[in-house]
Amino acid sequence: MIAWNHLGQAHSARWRSESGAPAPRRVVTADDTLSADTAYRLACEGTGLLWQGDFQNARMLLQALMRRVERKPRKAAARAAEKAAAATPAQLFHLHRQAQAQRARVLSSILIPLEADYGIDLRRAPDWRQACTEAWGPADGEASVATLRELLGLVGAFEWRKKGVDVPALGAGAHNRIHPHYGVFSPVRGEYVDLVADTSLPSTTLAFDVGVGTGVLSAVLVRRGVQRVVATDQDPRAMACARDNLKRLGVLDRVELLQADLFPPGRAPLVVCNPPWVPARPSSPIEHAVYDEGSRMLRGFLAGLAAHLEPGGEGWLILSDLAEHLELRPREQLLAWIAEGGLRVLGRHDMKPRHAKATEAGDALHAARMAEVTSLWRLAAIG
Asked: 242 and 135: one domain?
């Protein structure tokens, strides 16, 4: 719950946070009379600003806070640059994540009250009830409060879900789009999809897709002629998203969806897995697709793969080497886990990333991203 006082009266409501962040300990009501400088000072102190004014002015205030977060005094900027120049790649990564977390805390200070049906009773407020319902489920008749930043992300995801993401590996025309749900990572990094689409199949009878996500790799395998795919994920949102996409693409009859951690029962001639690439702690549910604390999923896949491969079968591990360039996991460690799993490397297909950050010189992790390569490792059981 989140609590505040307004005009001498105590109020409370349900607190909504996708990342699980606690509600601000101190909350004040705010409206159009609040200056951006005062709002920024309060936000840096950890105070929540429960908005009571014009909704569009709240959006403008958020943009003003963004400018202030990104604007650093000359001396502070010089100190930060000096610190970054002396840092190791791993230290740069952790500094980058600390800066991201601090930025998120400040920008999450603007709070929006929601009615029991997800309506927003503020001047010039949009109707985002459908977007909230798709993200959080049907309204439960309870008033709540969420950050404006989270609501904007939720609506952005809602628009992505309606529009979809074009996936050339699924073919041309209308039936090649993936519609990511809120909280499920979108397949915007196309190189891992292309690697699965272009590598020679060891068999077309059966494949396991471990960590199905949006369902894009299962769909690619079916479009390539695999007769049956068993796809797993432990996230209910991912399961619902994959089912919706596979149905849209007309391939659901050839894919069995199973909610499970890692492998389904049995063996297959092909087992595919695209685990999170960076061994770090996720700060929100959607970051579980990017960060794998302690390399839990990667290690689990490699440890259990041999037991789920048919004789002569292949395991396809799709993995970026970004963690290696950030000095978070050496290549020797990956090779050791492969050997410990009773596996050998049959081959490897590499692809350079094509996303915008790979060439963005201003990115804090520019050097690592420039060197990054995404690989499909073809693995087989020893003996």
From this structure: no
